[in-house]
Design brief:
Chain lengths: ~110, ~110
């Protein structure tokens, strides 16, 4: 699975959009991009995933660049409850359960 | 729905003791997983199951055993506890594998082996 690079920490004002970048320059054609988050040592929570098209669900939007070498997770209106460690994961679908969590980005949402 | 339920939440073991970490899900998911997370680190897959009666090793299976006799339950057994097994253990489930694999995690079991 491709390696990902994320900034170690970011701040965001409450109510503003949080844009979390992820670099995955060695991604291969069959690898998907997944985002999970972990709030204060709870179990990780699935957010969103995609292959090459932009994706949106009730939690967030995922923007993947055309060359697929990077992506951005967007939380449109961050709240204090969005404070968490966000993990960008790239994996081949056939690797069942294999989520290689890097260090992630610690997002601090401030009032 | 309760989702994924893990018991116990905390446990202290002595070296050489055995225990079973319980995991149950009520979402009728076929896939279930066990992970461990060491302090400041990411999750590592211990074992997983794609259905009742089927289990397979993950990245770090040594020292652990699992069984999957029902769709709902996926217990993790530690036979001879060692200090290296001090960690937080997470159980997870998903409806399917492949590209749409979306894991739902339990709240974890914090295990200390002294």
């Amino acid at each position: 699975d491709a390696k990902t690079t994320q900034p170690p920490s970011m701040d965001c004002a409450e109510g503003r959009a949080a844009n979390l970048p992820c670099n995955h320059s060695t991604i291969s054609g069959n690898e998907y991009v997944y985002w999970y988050r972990q709030i204060h040592s709870q179990g990780p929570q699935y957010i969103i995933h995609g292959l090459k098209n932009n994706e949106t669900n009730e939690m967030a939007s995922l923007i993947i660049t055309e060359d697929r070498k990077s992506s951005t997770l967007i939380l449109p209106h961050a709240t204090l409850r969005d404070t968490a460690v966000y993990y960008c994961i790239v994996r081949v679908p056939s690797n069942t359960g294999k989520l290689i969590f890097g260090q992630g980005t610690t997002l601090q949402v401030k009032p | 729905n309760a989702g994924v339920t893990q018991t116990p939440k905390f446990r202290i073991l002595k070296i050489g003791q055995s225990m079973t970490l319980q995991c149950a899900q009520d979402m009728n998911h076929n896939y279930m997983y066990w992970y461990r997370q060491d302090p400041g680190m990411g999750l590592k897959l211990i074992y997983y199951s794609v259905g009742a009666g089927i289990t397979d090793k993950g990245e770090v299976p040594n020292g652990y055993n699992v069984s999957r006799s029902t769709t709902e339950d996926f217990p993790l057994r530690l036979e001879l506890a060692a200090p290296s097994q001090t960690s937080v253990y997470f159980c997870a489930s998903s409806q399917t594998g492949g590209r749409n694999e979306k894991l739902f995690f339990g709240s974890g079991t914090q295990l200390s082996v002294l």
